């Protein structure tokens, strides 16, 4: 029987906006294991680092 509590994460950009532009300034890793209680678990300067952190987060035991 599979675990009911498998962790799931997503990566979202963090924007800094001015009148004409939206610049990505960081990347958040968000724990969406419980969709009604999403939590930012880390922030990274590059998307690559954030993706690696999200994968590591999903692999961690509770």
> What would you report as the Rg, rounded to the nearest angstrom?
14 Å
Query: What's the average pLDDT?
Result: 90
Order of helices and strands: EEEH
Query: What is the overall shape?
Result: elongated
As a percent range, the share of strand residues is 35-45%
Cα-to-Cα separation, first versus last residue: 17 Å
Query: Structural class given helices, strands, pairing?
Result: alpha+beta
For the secondary structure, the number of strands is: 3
Low-confidence stretches: none
Helix content: 10-25%
Largest sheet, in brief, is:
3 strands, antiparallel
Arrangement of strands in the largest sheet: 1-2-3
Q: Counting H and I runs of at least 4 residues, what is the number of helices?
A: 1
Strands, helices and their partners?
Elements: E1 9-17, E2 22-31, E3 39-44, H1 47-59
Antiparallel strand pairs: 1-2, 2-3
Q: Key features?
A:
single chain, 62 residues, alpha+beta, three-stranded antiparallel sheet, 3 strands, 40% strand, elongated
Task: Please describe what this structure looks like.
The chain is an alpha+beta fold. It has one helix spanning 47-59, and strands at residues 9-17, 22-31, 39-44. Strands 1-2-3 form a three-stranded antiparallel β-sheet, covered by helices on one side.
In short:
With 62 residues, the protein is an alpha+beta fold. The protein is built from 1 helix and 3 strands; from the N terminus they run βββα. It has a 3-stranded antiparallel sheet, with helices on one face.
